Amino acid sequence: QKEVEQNSGPLSVPEGAIASLNCTYSDRGSQSFFWYRQYSGKSPELIMFIYSNGDKEDGRFTAQLNKASQYVSLLIRDSQPSDSATYLCAGRPFGNEKLTFGTGTRLTIIP
Amino acid sequence: DTGVSQDPRHKITKRGQNVTFRCDPISEHNRLYWYRQTLGQGPEFLTYFQNEAQLEKSRLLSDRFSAERPKGSFSTLEIQRTEQGDSAMYLCASSRGTGAQETQYFGPGTRLLVL
Fold it and tell me: Does A40 reach chain B within 8 Å, measured CB to CB?
């Protein structure tokens, strides 16, 4: 079992709708979780991080963490064509520096 | 531009040759990380430095790979006797410190193709 798992997609969402991206993790010692966006051929770009149970909102993005279920999600409201990219979920255990990434979910926003 | 920079951006080499990549972190960041990413996969951790000390190395980092950060500023990653399986994007990231809120910021990457 991979430490961080994501549905590879592709996930297609109409423009203006809510895109929901999900991630599960196996290491209960994971402390912080990060969502990165990666356009084709480019490097990962940080969107947001979360380390407390519950929701965290930043503009059109909301990250959700449920430690009991070992589940992290990212919601993108009012999806735009420019949101089309691969979204990477990463976890970091307490006291450890390295990020463990999932394989990413490819999101396509349909105009 | 005050972000992480990497050089070169692209490298094509023949199998068996040595290659060296450079990373310049964000200036106030004392932690520097190397990751490798292949097509369709997420980045995989290779190694990281706190200042000039190399504190962790992945099993992925075979003895053909070596990384340095001699003055705690820029870092180099060298691959000796390259193999076709080394073809990947090599990503460098930096962070300011430790703690739940510390985030890693990635450079543009060096794309390596071994023929």
Answer: no
Q: Three-state SS for B42? A: coil
CB-CB under 8 Å, A34 with B42: no
Q: Which residues pair with A46 in a beta bridge?
A: A36
Of B42, B44, B105, the CB nearest to A104: B42
Write down the residue that tokens 């430490």 correspond to: A3
Count of CB atoms within 10 A of residue B78's CB?
A: 13
- A42 to chain B, any CB pair closer than 8 A? The answer is yes
* The pair of three-digit structure tokens given for residue B114, joined into one six-digit string: 């071994």
Per-residue confidence band for B61, with pLDDT thresholds at 50, 70 and 90: confident
Of A33, A36, A31, A11, which is closest to residue A21 (Cα–Cα)?
Answer: A11
- Cβ atoms of B23 and B4 closer than 8 Å: yes
Which residue of A lies nearest to B3 if distances are taken between CA atoms? A45
Angstrom CA distances, B70 to B41, B54, B79, B112, stand at: 31, 10, 17, 23
Give yes or no for a contact between A57 and A70, defined as CB atoms under 8 angstroms apart: no
Q: Which helix (H) or strand (E) holds A47?
A: strand A45-50
The pLDDT of A15-37, averaged and rounded, is 92
Please report the sign of the dihedral spanned by the C-alpha atoms of residue B85, residue B86, residue B89, residue B91: positive
> Whats the size of chain B, residue-wise?
115
